[in-house]
Amino acid sequence: MNSTGSQSQAQSQSQSQGSHSLAFRVMRLCKPSFHVDPPLRLDLSDLIAGEDIFDDPIAASNLTPLLDRHVANPTDSSDLSYRARFLLHDSSDPMGLSSLLVLPQSFGAIYLGETFCSYISINNSSNFEVKDVIIKAEIQTERQRLLLLDTSKSPVESIRAGGRYDFIVEHDVKELGPHTLVCTALYNDGEGERKYLPQFFKFMVANPLSVRTKVRVVKETTYLEACIENHTKSNLFMDQVDFEPAQHWSATILQANEHHSHSNSHTRDTFKSPILIRSGGGIHNYLYQLKLSSHGSTQMKVEGSNILGKLQITWRTNLGEPGRLQTQQILGTPITRKDIELHVLEVPSVINLERSFSLHLKLTNQTDRELGPFEVSLLYDGLHEEKVVMINGLQTMALPQVAAFSFTDFHLDLIASKLGIQRITGITVFDTREKKSYNPLPDFEIFVDLD
Q1: In a domain, 403, yes or no
Q2: Which pLDDT belongs to residue 333?
Q3: Could you say which DSSP state residue 303 is in?
Q4: Where's the Trafficking protein particle complex subunit 13 N-terminal domain (predicted)?
Q5: What is the pLDDT of residue 381?
Q6: Residues 55-113: pLDDT tens digits?
Q7: In a domain, 285, yes or no
Q8: Which of 112, 117, 96, 125 is nearest to 33 (CA)?
Q9: Which of 242, 252, 259 lies closest to 222 in space, CA to CA?
Q10: For residue 102, what pLDDT is reported?
């Protein structure tokens, strides 16, 4: 059950003229906190002897009987000295946590992503009964007004002298900055006069956490690092930090234990422990691997777009109060469309010295028109680069035209002249009709062995 906190310390104002029979009282509903017992507790063995007593086996063996004779049983009602109240009896005693809970003594901080829950009581402080009471409660921000309660269709028939009418309102906090809870009442007083009572309760909404992101591109893979920092005075237990990729992207979270034994993987998924981010500046980092899942015609639709996606974050505080935030769209490097894409489909598992081997390659036309014919060759910088891997046979391979959004796969025969790890560079495609060279295939390595 939620516990009622203290009355709002925010400003309460009334714009009405003259006295009113009714008045609003606003209290915040929130969880209690643990009571911390400040006195320092001691271990009796530290008072009787130092740590060097364990260097002597005989003295150490006599320490426990000695303590048993001098320590009173904490549950013994005959011990009126209460000598044991400052001694450690349980391993949790140094934490200072007792079995008591404490209700909030102030309105407290309200954070973005939380649910603001308020207990509102309208009191009749006059000596007369008021009738036909229409009550409204709304939240006003810099951007909008949200109606939380409206009894216009079913007014409160009457509130007796000294009586009250209570209700609870909730609001999911989605904006930062100043907020105003506006409570109004329209009623007939004891003399039958129709009166209007507005009251305003102001409070501020702060940001509970900050999210800093870094984007790195390695070849055709994008890595997103998200650093979440806790700005509240309470520990946050992160239930969910999921990255929702934009269209044509796929995302995988990378974790340190990803390659560990998966014998209990089902149990770990079912009973997933929340990640603790400590109060007052605690941080935790998340790493996501993003890949562009679009092919063919969809590649044109994302050209120039740099939207990667957004983070969905949910958490709970020490006593289980939930919170939820969604970040803005996270941006990466703008996507540029390539007319021609050349990929390696397969490399032989065994490559022998001075023996021909075949690379299986794929050439994709990513435009809406037919391209080609093509010539595939291996280019070298003759001044600085030695020919270690060469084409076996004709130095230029001819390929036919490729239809729009289509592809062709082919085999390129190569031969290596050196042992060990060698790099294949400079595989280039040339369009003979448009007289245009395309970016070469990214470098990759092979291992050359003896027969």
Answers
A1: yes
A2: 76
A3: T
A4: 20-205
A5: 66
A6: 777 766 766 666 665 555 555 555 555 566 666 666 666 666 666 787 777 777 899 99
A7: yes
A8: 96
A9: 252
A10: 78
Q: Does a cis peptide bond (omega within 30 degrees of 0) precede residue 373?
A: yes
**Of 331, 362, 391, which marks where a domain is finished?**
331
Nearest-angstrom CA–CA distance, 119 and 170: 9
**Alpha carbon distance 236, 231 (integer Å):** 10
**SS3 of residue 265 by DSSP:** helix
**Residues forming a β-bridge with 171:** 116
Q: Same domain, yes or no, for 146 and 18?
A: yes
Tell me: do 16 and 138 sit in the same domain.
yes
**Secondary structure element (H or E) that encloses residue 269, with its range:** helix 265-270
Beta-bridge partners for 196: 186
Six-digit token string for 145:
């007004």
Do 296 and 175 reside in the same domain of the chain? no
| φ, ψ for residue 75, nearest 5 deg | -95, 5
Residue 247 is predicted with a pLDDT of 85
pLDDT mean for each 10 residues of the chain (451 residues): 42 53 89 71 62 68 63 54 62 66 78 92 92 94 93 92 93 93 92 91 93 87 93 91 90 74 50 84 93 58 72 90 91 77 90 91 88 87 71 89 90 91 89 88 88 77
Write out pLDDT tens, residues 173-188: 999 999 999 999 999 9
Helix (H) or strand (E) holding 203: strand 194-206
Contact predicate 398/375, CB 8 Å:
yes
Cα separation, 135 vs 261, in Å, equals 61
> How far, in Å, CA of 242 to CA of 326, rounded?
10
Is residue 168 domain-shared with residue 149, that is, in the same domain?
yes
CATH number at residue 111: 2.60.40.10
C-alpha–C-alpha distance, residues 47 and 335, integer Å = 70
Integer Cα distance of 443 and 395 in angstroms:
19
Whether 67 and 170 map to the same domain: the answer is no
Which tokens go with 242?
């999921």
Distance from C-alpha of 188 to C-alpha of 428, rounded to nearest angstrom: 88
Q: Is there a single domain that holds both residue 432 and residue 344?
A: yes
Alpha-carbon torsion, ordered 226, 227, 229, 234, to 10 deg: 70
Q: At which residue do the structure tokens 């320590």 appear?
A: 71
pTM of structure: 0.64
| Domain, as residue range, for 58 | 44-95
Instruction: List the strands of the sheet with 444-449, edge to edge.
Output: 351-352, 444-449, 420-424
Do 349 and 414 lie in one domain? The reply is: yes
Please give the pLDDT value at position 334: 72
Q: Is residue 211 part of a domain?
A: no
Q: What is the pLDDT of residue 309?
A: 92
- Closest CA relative to residue 291, chosen from 254, 251, 253, 324: 251
